[in-house]
Amino acid sequence: EDKVVQSPLSLVVHEGDTVTLNCSYEVTNFRSLLWYKQEKKAPTFLFMLTSSGIEKKSGRLSSILDKKELFSILNITATQTGDSAVYLCAAAGGTSYGKLTFGQGTILTVHP
Amino acid sequence: DVKVTQSSRYLVKRTGEKVFLECVQDMDHENMFWYRQDPGLGLRLIYFSYDVKMKEKGDIPEGYSVSREKKERFSLILESASTNQTSMYLCASRPTGARNEQYFGPGTRLTVT
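YS: structure for the whole thing
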């Protein structure tokens, strides 16, 4: 059975802190690892990672994949209150239909 | 921009009622998905469809059925709603191809009393 586990499940920080969110996966025929941000609405896409060791970056957010150890991390530097959200990790495997297996999510709260 | 819309943001139904949740996407995507999201459990796949009239069970299909009569519309049906189906329901779509990114609708928060 495909499985994705995120840690920590929740995190409270202050503005300016740097956070690291973790995602480990066990997925048959792994294709890619995706990160989404969910505020009180639809999850929005952040990154898709397919190759080990290549960092993807968007502003203060960055992510990297380790296909040997089967995990990914999402880093957020200089956090802001607008970063408060649920961060979802998902692994794609198997068929061309693009079935995703999601982790439980990490609830990030950034205090001013 | 891809747009995925869901028929209701909030819905309250009684136990035993038949419930229809509608999802429409405007980007001609072949693949559509229904998830439920519960605290501590993340998103769990209920059903997906890879073409009109084609459907596949996801991880938790019990108590649900789906309908895809047109490419842009994917409906989730609760034949006889139960309190344990109280949840947030999210619809998503993606095109066939290399990218696995799914585009999500805003969700329907269903409460069954």
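YS: worth flagging: Chain B touches chain A at residues 4, 31, 33, 35, 40-45, 48, 50, 56, 58, 90, 94, 96-97, 99-107 (CB under 8 Å).
IM: good catch. Also Chain B is about 0% helix and 55% strand.
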